[in-house]
Amino acid sequence: MKTKICTVSNQEFVITDEDEKFYEKMGVPEPTLCPQERNRRRTSYRNFKNLYRRKCDGTGKMVISMYHKDQPFPVYENSYWWSDKWDSMEYGQEIDLGRSFLDQYHDLAMKVPRFCTNTLASENCEYGNQVIYSKDCYLVFGCVHDEDCMYGHIVWYSKNCLDNLYVFRCEWCSECVDCVDCYDLHHSTECANCNESYFLHDCRGCNNCFGCTNLRNKSYCFLNQQLTKEAYELKMQSLRAFKRETIEMGKEWLEKTKKKHCLFPPMFGVKNEDCTGNHVYESKNCQSVFDTKNCEDSNYLFTSFGVYNSYDISFNGGEGRFCYECMTNGGAEDCMSSQSCYDCSGMYYCEFCYNCKDCFGCTGLRNKQYCILNKQYEKEEYERLRDEIIERMKEDKEWGEFFSSKYSPFAYNESVAQEYQPLDQDEVISRGLRWRAEEVGASYEGEKVKIPDTIVEVDDEIIKQVLTCQVTGKSYRILKQELEFYKRMKLPLPDTCPDYRHEARMGLRNPRDLWSRSCKKCDKNVESSFETSCPEQVVCESCYLDSLG
Question: Which alpha helices (H) appear in 44-139, and where do they start and end?
Answer without folding.
Answer: 78-81, 101-109
